[in-house]
Amino acid sequence: MPNVEKEILPKNGLKLTFTLTQEEAQPYLEEAAKRLSEQTSIPGFRPGHASFDVIKQRLGEMKILEEALESIVRKSFVSMILEENIETVGSPKIDVVKLAPGNDIVFAAEVTIMPRAKSLPDLERLSVKAQSPSVEDKEIDMALRDLQRMQTSEVRATAQEGVTMGDKVVVSMNMKLDGVPVEGGQSPNHAVYLNEEYYIPVFKEQLIGLKEGEKKTFPLAFPKEHVQTMVAGKEVEFDVELKELFHLQPPALDDAFAVALGTKDFEALKGIIRKNLLDEKEHEARTKEEKEMLELVAGKTQFEDLPDLLINEEINKMVLELQRAVEAQGLEFDTYVKNLGKTLAAMKIDFTPQALMRVKVAIAMREIAREQKIEVSEKEIDEELDRAAEGYEDQKTKEQVYSPQYRDYMEQILKNRKVIEYLRKVIIK
Which of 87, 119, 264, 378 could form a disulfide with 302 if both were Cys (CB 3.0 to 4.6 A apart)? Predict the structure, then answer.
């Protein structure tokens, strides 16, 4: 093991200076010489069979040192971190101090140490009120209307029939402001359900009585709070042509409707809807309770200096989470950011307070796990990994689930779950 000098740096930094004697470095040099012999054509020797002295004479000792350096740094650094049980954040900054034939090898590694909580609050004195979600009859009625809307039939109107408030129309629409077309205000096939709310007041009423093929021009005032500032609070002229008219025929909300959806009768359908709504509300309530609980604990905890690296990593993680969510909806992330009227840098600044809280919560949870001796057994990890692997058919993905890195990640996830359950028993009241 090389000699290692430690120097504490600001913001939870640590500088480790490694010194390897020539004797300690020799095994690395011999491995490096063997690799070089496999890559180099040397007269009289098959690839990989030239001796250390021959490679040294042929390529020079400095070449061997340079080839061995990466292995020396990696193995020495990792061994030290594991032996001393040092928790680091991010990648180390490596600086080669001395690398010359006939001399000790000296290199320094600067790392950021995972900060710890200096003191936790008295958890017994903290309190978060438990929520008691319930479902009202009007919420069930709204869900039933949504189901009814999904099962509604559309019947094409005859040429002689005009629009009524229960219909669906498809219109060609062109909006103008002071005679100039509004950007994004043109739609050749704009569907409007007249039995639903529309974002421009009185727009639906202007369509009443129109027949297919008829046109109409009329002015309407946009709401002052409209998202498009260009037209918010202003009077806009609409050119509308009715292209298609459909009469909506919703099914009756009765036993037959419920049976068609796979339930026994209408009362059973309402019972299922009530349970589903309650389950959803209980999940939302639990999530809200836990967020309030964890942020309360973190807010009352005293921390060591939090390194900028840790905060920046959390901000980047939040940006990536948002990007995945945006792209999952089929949108371009760059376009999404642009439409917000912000730069990515400005968005990261906005994320900073939340990122700081997330970091504090994570550190506080780790400290609670240490204090309460909350552990996860190998069996628990194995069972969770098996459940995760069952969700994949691809063999390569299954193998990744069982990788050491993912195992460590899963262990932390399971430990966090146990910490949250412990805190719920103590704090949620």
Answer: 119
**What is the per-residue burial (b if ≥16 Cβ within 10 Å, else e) of 6-42?**
eeeeeebbbbbbbbbeeebbeebbeebbbbbbeeeeb
Comparing 166 with 39, which gets the higher pLDDT?
Answer: 166
* Phi, psi dihedral angles at 341 (to 5 degrees): 75, 25
- Check pLDDT > 80 for residue 427: yes
Rounded-to-integer distance, Cα 214 and Cα 220, Å: 19
149-206 pLDDT, tens digit per residue, is 899 999 999 989 999 998 999 999 999 998 999 888 899 999 999 988 887 888 999 9
* Sign of the CA dihedral with 373 first, then 382, 413, and 315 last: positive
| Closest to 267 (Cα-Cα) out of 140, 133, 136, 147 | 140
For residues 210 and 162, is the Cβ–Cβ distance under 8 A? yes
Best CA proximity match to 274, nearest among 162, 179, 141: 141
pLDDT at 46: 65
Rounded CA separation 70/31 (Å): 12
pLDDT at 38: 77
Alpha-carbon radius of gyration of the chain: 34
Element housing 240 (H / E): strand 235-249
The number of beta carbons lying within 10 Å of the beta carbon of residue 88 is 16
- Backbone dihedral region for residue 85 (phi beyond 0: left; psi -120 to 50: alpha; all else: beta): left
d(CA 144, CA 95): 67
Q: What is the bridge-based pairing of β-strands 88-98 and 302-303?
A: unpaired
User: Looking at the whole model, is its pTM more than 0.90?
Assistant: no
What is the Cβ-side half-sphere exposure of residue 122, based on CA atoms within 13 angstroms? 2
